[in-house]
Write a structure and sequence with these properties.
It contains 16 helices and twelve strands. By secondary structure, it is an alpha+beta fold. It has two domains: 104 residues, Phosphorylase Kinase, domain 1; 288 residues, Alpha-Beta Complex (Aminoglycoside 3'-phosphotransferase, Chain: A, domain 2). The strands form four sheets. Strands 1-2-3-7-6 form a five-stranded antiparallel beta sheet, with helices on both faces. It has a three-stranded antiparallel beta sheet with strand order 8-10-11. Strands 4-5 form a two-stranded antiparallel ribbon.
């Protein structure tokens, strides 16, 4: 019958036809739980407390956040399914298991992670995740290294680049991260209280020059298979476990974009606590935890990446003196720059983050938003001065939050 968007009843009927998912006579219930911008997401479960459950994710042929005036390819469902399979082969257990993929219906059936929570929500509640830095640092090092030219021969790498060509979703990133926030675009949405701060950004030619360079890297630097949208809403966690989800934006791009996106979202949480956590001592303690998490992620990533390089990199890369150190330094610069872009776009552009949007008082929200804009600008403008991860966190620590938050 061809592609069509499923409803809850049709999702149950569909999954019954897939062998091995549920027992033949299972009593199933289904709820559409998608709160994202692009897809339908169904949770289907057996009735009873011990029953099995799965997630069915179906791509829509348009951006859900806008409607059918913004058409999108259904091929992103294939990209997501294939990326999850690759990531699970490299980092078993750090992404949901894929049980079934249907190309015609643009849907994937995968492991239900209802025992986990979206990390963004956990950070807003000031939860701490002692294993997260180790797990995500390892995920980044392994997925990026093993899909790069450091590991793959050039022929195989170029085949992979072709497999993950993703022009429509890349265009979303190009426009919403690197273009629209930095001029008075119709798609921009922002707190009116910070309009003067935003106008300063629109008029900052030095800043826009550096952002243009970063956009060029995003467009041209096919370094590794990146997740493409690695924020704290694309990570589900428990106190001891991490799962990376939603890699539909995956393509061969710059490694620093993934690492920078993650760091940006930890820093957006950092900024949001200017409004969420009014007790100064408690706020500073949690903000310090977030900065230490950023430092630990990069440290673990760097250690793991160096070990993989030493064990697996092709001879030419291993034999050239200081090449590894130069590579990682350039990657750290990219990470800082991309993080800055991602922070600013989440304040100015079309799709904001609940971390800041859930602050009900516009004045308090403006305080966190101004801090995010200040941090974002510093990371873009000072990316070349960062030689170690503590340089990056020091740039953040040195921004005076009271001065940034002053409305006078």
């Amino acid at each position: 019958m061809g592609y069509h968007a499923l409803n809850e009843m049709e999702a149950i009927q569909y999954v019954r036809k897939i062998a091995g998912i549920f027992p033949e006579n299972a009593q199933l219930i289904c709820k559409e739980i998608g709160d994202g911008n692009l897809n339908l997401v169904f949770r289907i479960m057996e009735q009873g407390s011990a029953g099995k459950s799965i997630i069915m994710k179906q791509a829509l042929p348009y951006a859900r956040i806008v409607g059918d005036s913004w058409p999108l390819t259904l091929d992103r469902a294939r990209i997501e399914s294939e990326a999850l399979l690759i990531q699970n082969s490299i980092c078993p257990g750090l992404v949901p298991k894929v049980y079934h993929y249907d190309n015609e219906m643009a849907l994937t059936i995968m492991e239900d992670l209802s025992t986990h929570i979206i990390m963004r929500k956990g950070l807003t509640a000031r939860n701490r995740y002692p294993y997260f830095a180790r797990q995500i640092g390892t995920f980044l090092a392994r997925t990026l290294f093993f899909s790069s030219d450091l590991m793959l021969d050039s022929h195989h790498k170029k085949q992979k680049v072709r497999q993950f060509i993703n022009p429509e979703l890349c265009k979303i990133t190009e426009e919403l991260v690197f273009t629209d926030p930095f001029y008075d675009a119709e798609t921009n949405q922002f707190n009116p209280l910070i309009k003067d701060d935003i106008k300063d950004i629109w008029g900052n030619d030095e800043l826009k020059l550096e952002i243009s360079k970063l956009k060029e890297k995003f467009l041209t630097h096919a370094q590794a298979l990146i997740h493409g949208d690695l924020h704290t809403g694309s990570i589900m966690v428990t106190e001891t476990d991490t799962k990376v989800i939603d890699p539909e934006f995956s393509f061969y791009g710059p490694m620093g974009f993934d690492i920078g996106a993650l760091i940006a979202n930890l820093l957006l949480s950092y900024c949001s606590h200017e409004g969420h956590t009014l007790d100064k001592t408690e706020r500073l303690h949690y903000q310090d935890y977030l900065l230490m998490t950023i430092e630990n992620i990069w440290t673990i990533f760097e250690e793991e990446f160096k070990a993989l390089w030493q064990e697996n990199a092709k001879g030419l890369y291993v034999s050239i003196p200081r090449y590894k150190e130069d590579y990682l330094l350039r990657l750290l610069h990219d990470t800082a720059g991309f993080a800055g872009c991602k922070m600013m776009r989440r304040v100015i552009g079309l799709a904001h983050v609940p971390d800041l949007e859930s602050i009900k008082d516009p004045e308090l929200r403006a305080r966190g938003e101004r801090l995010a804009l200040a941090v974002g600008q510093v990371l873009v403008l000072k990316q070349g001065t960062v030689s170690k991860i503590t340089d990056l966190t020091t740039l953040v620590r040195n921004i005076d939050t009271w001065e940034v938050g002053d409305d006078s």
